[in-house]
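Subject: Interface between my chains keeps coming out wrong

I've been trying for a while to get a sensible model of this assembly. When I model each chain on its own everything looks fine, but I need the whole thing in one frame so I can look at the contacts. Pasting all components below, labels as-is. Any help appreciated, I'm running out of ideas.
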Amino acid sequence: MTPTLIWILVVLVAVGLYLSWTAGRLDRLHARIDAARAALDAQLLRRASVAQELATSGVLDPAASIVLYEAAHAARQAVEEQREVAESELSQALRAVFADAAQVDAVREAPGGEEAALELAEAVRRVPMARRFHNDAVRAARALRLHRKVRWFRLAGHAPFPLAFEMDDEPPAALIERAA
Amino acid sequence: MRIGIVCPYSWDVPGGVQFHIRDLAEYFLRQGHEVSVLAPADDDTPLPPYVVSAGRAVPVPYNGSVARLNFGFLSAARVRRWLHDGSFDVVHIHEPSSPSLGLLTCWAAQGPLVATFHTSNPRSKAMIAAYAILQAALEKISARIAVSEYARRTLVEHLGGDAVVIPNGVDVDFFAKAEPKPQWQGDTIGFIGRIDEPRKGLPVLMRALPKILAARPQTRLLVAGRGDEEEAVESLPAELRSRVEFLGMVSDEDKARLLRSVDLYVAPNTGGESFGIILVEAMSAGAPVLASDLDAFAQVLDQGAAGELFANEDADALADAAVRLLGDPERREELRARGSAHVRRFDWSTVGADILSVYETVTAGAAAVATDDRATGLRARLGLARD
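Reply #2:
Try treating it as a single job with all components included. I did that and got this:
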């Protein structure tokens, strides 16, 4: 009788340790998602700010300025549900405005334009990076959360199910090549 | 920024990953960052000041060949000590899925971890069995980098998730400014790589050589690399063997001069390449490139725009293309110009800045890298903690 009891106890402790370790893993993944999301937010905001700055600087022609200003403003003001669409539209606006290498050159020739072009090039390069890192974290967390042990023992607690951030983040080719 | 870099392979053995890490570390040092590289090395090997030895790597059979790996209690302790002493803002692990220092660092660290996946190995049996262990370690990595679109695809298929593509870097000017050597000029074809490694493709080139020499008898083939020279020319008719010159292992300087001198650089590799740094080096030196159409090569050569491609392992196609190119100086000049322009994106100034962008993206607002106490927490609670 006693040996059986001891075995049951050992198994229970082992299962408990394993579940606690899994919960730790999950907690770490959620923390990673939060950090990645904060980084993505920072990069998106930075891109919108640089775009807005350029739009109001008078370097671009009035039509391009308005298009860019509209898109940058909408991206910054968008509520959470509209964010992906608004940011995608900013990407499209940037691609439309900087479709020609000549436009990039024009910006660079203006006073202070060199720095502005560099800042924008850096921002449009980093948004896709930050988004990939975020979605990678989301994928890892989802894979673990869908596992039986996590669902049965409710190891995720009340944390919301992580969602990927889907948007069009293709940078304007002319801008990237000029900066490189 | 305080940057820690983990190199999985012995520092004293030359290899692509080691060179990549050396150049990357030196680029960051020039930019004014603090860098420490943790690498396996023999205790008596002279190391650059920024390299910390993780002890000697042990040769063990792994994945079909003998690999030199670091594992076990002592290595893990050294990794912990290095992480603790360094208090890095970011730790960059290379080849994290090989059971060596990279994986140990994943286990021992928490905080902003960046990892670069260099190889695109097909999934090994060991990796399938160890998938759960691997996944728990790899999911700590905040940012993954793949060296090519091809490497990224294998990574996504085998491990899931995603990665950004940042190519390997090359010091373009070092190759572009090398002095050509007159005795290596004049109707020469270059080949650099291990002679006795069939995947480097020298046998394919040897099969193509009689046809090339039949059309252009004045052509010479210059081969630089380790291996048995007798065995390499065995398949060649005796009278043609004098057209092949073996240069043995060459220094970096001679490699650059060789690439500057040849009329055509041929890369007949048959597989196992995830990037193709040698093609970038050849283009930097202004050598027209003719390469097999491996996925990785096609990508480096911009799908054939910056260099010509031939069907992999097809010696006839290789011979035809080589004869055509050797007889067409204008086309070679065009390839030179295109290659030199294309290769700028692989220069360290671009690649290093991109990698730094990744660091800045993951460190923004995050705490520094520390040893992961959750792994030791249990041991500490049971009173077994070392230190």
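Reply #3:
Confirming on my end. The interface with chain B takes residues 17, 24-25, 28-29, 32, 35-36, 38-39, 42-43, 122, 125-126, 128-130, 132-133, 135-137, 139-140, 143-144, 180 of chain A (CB under 8 Å).
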